């Protein structure tokens, strides 16, 4: 599943970049995020619970930052394992473009699942992943614009 989009954020690029690297802001914006903390300069540990149809599997895993080009762009990749649900992998390429007093956050998100969770069907999984990504970028926009 691939999803592309753009958010116009009422803040300068440096402010948006700093927010993209702030685990407190990210935790507040990621739907279902229960824990998010740095373990190195380019890796975070995360735990989140995702509603998928009638179940709510919990995933724990790592988030990696790569292709770092501060304050212009980076790639964020994650891999999580759920106890009985299976695995979820995903990532996003994120670019920041200053546009006057605002910043355009341009993203391409991809997601994959395996194991028991994959039995729910690609339609439900794609829909859920799309909702999570859309909600994250909307909440992130609100949080950064409000600051």
UniProtKB/TrEMBL annotation:
<dbReference type="InterPro" id="IPR023393">
    <property type="entry name" value="START-like_dom_sf"/>
</dbReference>
<protein>
    <submittedName>
        <fullName>Carbon monoxide dehydrogenase subunit G</fullName>
    </submittedName>
</protein>
<dbReference type="InterPro" id="IPR010419">
    <property type="entry name" value="CO_DH_gsu"/>
</dbReference>
<dbReference type="Pfam" id="PF06240">
    <property type="entry name" value="COXG"/>
</dbReference>
